[in-house]
Structures are given as C-alpha cells and as structure tokens.
Amino acid sequence: MTMTAISAASPAAAHEQALEVRLRRLGRADYEPTWRAMQEFTAGRAPATVDELWLLEHPPVYTLGVAGRAEHLPRLANGIPVIKVDRGGQITYHGPGQVVIYLLLDLRRRGLSVRPLVRLMEQAVIDWLAGYGIAAEGRADAPGVYVGGAKIAALGLRIRNGCCYHGLAVNIDMDLAPFRVIDPCGYSGLAVTQARDLGIEGGAELAGAMLVHQLRQKLA
C-alpha cells in the first residue's frame, strides 16, 4: 500500500517540481556580468533545471536591444555606458531605484510562448499597481506597462532552445533624467513615470518583493 501511494503521488510531485520557481536576490549588480551569467545559465540548462527569478538593481547603464538603431542612442554625453545586448527591443535605461526581475524559464515545460509570457509579465505589474488603486495597461504596439500614457515598466526577452532570459524593469524611486536623452524603447518623446511619483511608498525593496509574488502566482 505504501508503494502504491508513493507511485500515485509521483506525477503530481513531479509536476509541482517542474513548475517551481527559485528566487535569487542579487542586490545591486553590474549589468554585463549579470547578462553573461544569464546566458551561461540558459546554455547549461538540463531538462530538470529549476526555473529562476533574479531580483536586482543595476548601476546606471543604457542597454540597446537587437532592434536598436543609432538614432535612439543618448543625444547628450552623460557618462552612462551603452551596452548592446541580445534581448528584443530598442534602448532603455537601468539605474538604482528600479526593480529588475530576470525570468529564466523553460517555456516548453510551462507550455508558454512569447506573447502569453509578455502578457503575463505586464499583468503582474498591472495587478501590483491595482493594489494601490492605480489603473495601468499594456499596449499591443509597444510592450510594457503604462499609466496615463507614461511608461512605468519595460520588458525584453531572449529565447534560446525553448528557454528565456532577460525580463522586466519597473521604475520605483529613481532619477528619471537619463530617460530624457534617449527615445525610450525607440519611441521619441515617450513619457516615463515611476511608483514614487504615483504616490506609492516603500521603495524598491518592498516593490520587488510584491512584484516577485505577482509573477510567482501567475507562473504557478
């Protein structure tokens, strides 16, 4: 009877293990070593590798996606490095006070494709903001999350062998000035906002924990 009970529970246990999401808190981490670590993690994955979320902030840096064009680069020299990376999309800015969550997921195992994953990520931010009574939305023509037409969250992904990396950046309590000398995500004149300016208190640490909770719920 014991052996039968173990056998009966095994498929459910295996399914639960397959959908596990491990969290890594990386603190403030330089962009390029973190990006290379994501590439290495993804390249070295095995079928049983547990999916991970990496929660962190970056020192000031611009990143230019594979579709990035020269006209979207900073128009003024401000000493912030520009790194060309392998995610989709155009240029964006990362800096202290912005919550970054990288999603390192086996999409095939989860039955996810790119578009539903993008919607899931957007919805996590939308639902988090809704908890503060703030209405937000995604845009079909420009992935991300917007409040009153101003962008609060940017998304970018890379898919390799059915697995993804890169992820989500949400502006919480930061200096927004570096966005003003670029075309954020390739859109000239796009307004950018952040949680602090919407009346959300608590800072990046609390926001990061709440956003991770939203993502984990939606990935379960």
Structure description:
The structure is a single chain. The protein is α+β, with helices and mostly antiparallel strands and about 220 residues long. It has a single domain (about 20-220), classed as 2-Layer Sandwich (BirA Bifunctional Protein, domain 2). The chain has 5 helices and 9 strands. The strands form 2 sheets. The chain has a 6-stranded mixed sheet, sandwiched between helices. Strands 4-3-5 form a 3-stranded mixed sheet, with no helix packed on it. α4 packs across α5 (about 205-220). It is globular, with a radius of gyration of 18 Å.
Quick take:
It is built from 5 helices and 9 strands. Helix content is 31%, strand content 26%.
Features:
single chain, 220 residues, alpha+beta, BirA Bifunctional Protein, domain 2, 6-stranded mixed sheet, 3-stranded mixed sheet, 31% helix, globular
Write the layout of secondary structure elements.
Blueprint: H1 2-18, E1 21-28, H2 31-43, E2 51-57, E3 61-64, E4 82-84, E5 91-94, E6 98-106, H3 107-110, H4 114-130, E7 145-147, E8 150-160, E9 163-171, H5 203-219
Parallel strand pairs: 1-2, 3-4
Antiparallel strand pairs: 2-6, 3-5, 6-9, 7-8, 8-9
Helix pairs in contact: 4-5
CATH architecture: 2-Layer Sandwich
CATH class membership = Alpha Beta
Query: How much helix, percentage-wise, in residues?
Result: 25-40%
Number of strands: 9
Tell me the CATH superfamily.
Bira Bifunctional Protein, Domain 2
Spell the H/E element sequence. HEHEEEEEHHEEEH
CA-atom Rg in angstroms: 18 Å
> Count of DSSP helices?
5
Name the structural class. Answer: alpha+beta
Oligomer class: single chain
Largest sheet: 6 strands, mixed
How much of the sequence lies in strands comes to 25-35%
Count of individual domains? 1
| Uncertain ranges | 1-12
Whole-number average pLDDT?
91
Largest sheet: spatial strand order: 1-2-6-9-8-7
Shape: globular
